[in-house]
Amino acid sequence: GIMRIAVTYENGQIFQHFGHTETFKIYDVEEGKVVHSEVVDTNGSGHGALAGVLNALNADVLICGGIGGGAQTALAAAGIKLFGGVFGDADKAVEAFINKTLDYNPDVKCSHHEHSHGEGHTCGEHGCGSHSCH
């Protein structure tokens, strides 16, 4: 069967903020080779809604940079495997994934949530839902 890999995408590179990505590059992989790829616009969807976009595209895997907890939960619910914390060239990352040499971070966080939240500030404002970003 064909495996479908989605990568957050901008100018050939892996875009580093899942919730703000404007395009995904979708790769269809069969027998260890990319047989088709295309760039798909997210049509302004953001954060949690992007998991729905990927689900509609029948993505099996997402390769991305930073990603928040709410989006991670939505992807897991959709059965999409996440490989986050990945930098650099999108095509090379997909090749590395196929070859099982992809360098990713299983504990990826969205970097803009690393600061401590002050009084009255919640992750909900960033679209992470009720889930903690940490």
Give an account of the 3D structure:
This protein has helices at about 50-55, 70-75, 90-100, and strands spanning about 5-10, 15, 25-30, 35-40, 60-65, 80-85. It is an alpha/beta fold and about 130 residues long. The chain has one domain: Dinitrogenase iron-molybdenum cofactor biosynthesis domain (Nucleotidyltransferase, domain 5), CATH 3.30.420. Strands 1, 2, 3, 4, 5 and 6 form a six-stranded mixed β-sheet that branches. The chain starts with a strand and ends in a 36-residue tail after the last helix.
* Envelope shape: globular
Second rung of CATH, namely the architecture: 2-Layer Sandwich
Helix content: 10-25%
In the CATH hierarchy, the third-tier topology is known as: Nucleotidyltransferase, domain 5
Full CATH superfamily name: Dinitrogenase iron-molybdenum cofactor biosynthesis domain
Which regions have little confidence, pLDDT < 50, spanning 5+ residues?
112-134
DSSP E strands, number = 6
Structural class, from secondary structure content? alpha/beta
What's the number of helices?
A: 3
Major sheet summary line: 6 strands, mixed
**Overall number of structural domains:** 1
Overall residue-averaged pLDDT value: 84
| Distance from first to last alpha carbon | 36 Å
Order of helices and strands: EEEEHEHEH
Beta-strand level of the residues, as a percent range? Answer: 15-25%
CATH domain class name: Alpha Beta
